[in-house]
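Researcher: Here's a chain I'd like modeled. Treat it as a single chain, no partners, no ligands.
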Amino acid sequence: MLPIVGIGAGLVSALLFTVVITGSPLALLLSYVAPLPVFIAALGWNHRAGLVAVAAGTLAVTVVLKLSLGLAFAIGAALPAWWIAYLVLLARDDGNGNGEWYPLGRLLVWIAAVATLVTVGGALAISTDFETYRNVMARGLQLVLSGSEGIGPVMRLPPGVDAGELASRLTLLVPVAAGASFVLMIVANLWLAAKAVQLSGRLPRPWPFIPSARLPATAVAGLVGGIVLSLIGGFVGLAGAALAGALLAAFGLAGLAAVHDLSRGKAWRTPTLFALYLALLIMLITVFPFLALLGIADALIDLRRRKPPASPAA
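Model: Modeled as a single isolated chain. Structure tokens:
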């Protein structure tokens, strides 16, 4: 049963990954859920089923298309899903006979680390020469900004702004955006897969209290280190920028969890959460950094520390 499930999940994941070559918006959307079948196989059966899915999907993409795309599928979608699912199901004895599952905050740190590696791997796949990589990315961004060759809508840039120069500057932000978007993609796929497996009754881990997610304080040091590395330049700087973007996304999610946790039982909870999600929908780039700052503050000083109840009067 396990090999059959793994092979089926791998083939579905490979199909979702390869449809992106059609170039349609729907195909692009489907490619974002390529890790989902691997997650479901690994969470619902065990990590071995996930490994079978990785191998089957990689082989299918390699045979149908080519080896480089097979490796891209394995590194960019399948292996990250398998590893994160493996961590989700890790448990240990807390010393009192109770099982302690892998904490959500550390899981977010691992997702950020995997996002960094995938971003760097994607850049190296474009070119192992950094200047060549920058030129390729700048050219692609310039085509998007100018709407040339039918790529994207024609954008009206302010007078005096050159599309080529702007594209060259924006290449510095590409690894930041790539790292952050990968974190959000993996978290969304993980939640969907876990919820589906839970509804089927196959999820071994009890459903966690997600608003309790809080990153460890060491993640702040990782963020600072990523920012410092990003100033070096080259692929080292690219790795630092990707790490900074990935951790900012993780901190943003932790900040969102903190809002959910801190507002429990408060009269202002419903309007606050409604306004927050509406703002995220309309002004994601503006609002999300504030959530990241909240997540950083929570990691450093534990904003959710509950005061002990007052002693009853004598």
